Amino acid sequence: MSEPNNTVPSEEFDPHASSLPGEVEQAVLDELYAIRGSIDNFDAQLVYLLAERFKATQRVGLLKARHDLPPSDPNREKAQIQRLRSLAHEAHLDPEFAEKFLNFVISEVIRHHQNISDAHKND
Ligand SMILES: O=C(O)C(=O)C[C@]1(C(=O)O)C=C[C@@H](O)C=C1
Where's the Chorismate mutase domain (predicted)? Predict the structure, then answer.
């Protein structure tokens, strides 16, 4: 039976899933798997961190809808981008990437805010 799209697949994550076995020495694969273990831990944290951020922005969206405030706040965004670029620079992360990432997240937040506002108006 196939699963509905909105559920977590029941299949276990295989941390050793790879297209490389047979192509490289086992020692190289072992080193790669060890590094990938850290990548997997980081990706899991990223998901939890983003979920927490969206929980907070959901509250902002409700507050804005209740008080009929616009979904976006361009001056706030400018300040956030400037701060994130500077943090990225200090952390040796490409500031362009940090800005693109923040803009990507914020555009999704604004879409959520708009949906909350539309739902609020139709109540
Ligand atoms: O702080 C707000 O006013 C928000 O709506 C949150 C947020 C963000 O995701 O950080 C999203 C949209 C705004 O343009 C600015 C910031």
Answer: 26-117
pTM for this entry: 0.87
Ligand 1 and 84: CB distance under 6 A = no
Give the three-state DSSP class for 21.
strand
Q: What is the pLDDT of residue 9?
A: 55
ipTM comes to: 0.99
Q: Is 66 touching ligand 1 by the criterion CB < 6 Å?
A: no
Q: Which CATH number fits domain 26-121: 1.20.59.10, 3.40.30.10, 3.40.190.10, 1.20.1250.20?
A: 1.20.59.10
